[in-house]
Amino acid sequence: MLLKIISPERTLHQGEVDSVSLPGTLGLFMVLKDHAPLVSALTRGNVVFVADGMEHAVAIERGVVEVKNNAVVVCVS
Asked: Which CATH architecture has domain 2-76?
């Protein structure tokens, strides 16, 4: 699935990933391929994703995420 992490200044990541873990306001949750569509608020923590068998993390303060049609778009500040 495609993951795009963007901030007002720049694109922090864009590429294909196997999974994404996100710090939702009600707790940590994971998105996998073919996940149901959703929109969620995010809180301080790490967006952790697995790409090509390697785990990566991007620290965020807050944001929102939209999951739709195997695309995960994370807008952070």
From this structure: Sandwich (2.60)
Kindly report the pTM of this predicted structure.
Answer: 0.93
pLDDT of residue 77: 85
Question: By the 8 A CB rule, do 33 and 49 touch?
Answer: no
User: For residue 31, is pLDDT > 90?
Assistant: yes
pLDDT at 57 over 90: yes
Which residues pair with residue 61 across a beta bridge?
Answer: none
When the pLDDT of each residue in the chain is averaged and rounded to a whole number, the result is: 96
Residue 29 — φ and ψ, nearest 5°? -140, 160
For the four alpha carbons of 59, 33, 9 and 52, in that order, the dihedral sign comes to positive
Instruction: Give residue 4's identity as a one-letter amino acid code.
Output: K
Q: Which residue has the tokens 């073919």?
A: 34
Number of neighbours of residue 74 by Cβ within 10 angstroms:
24
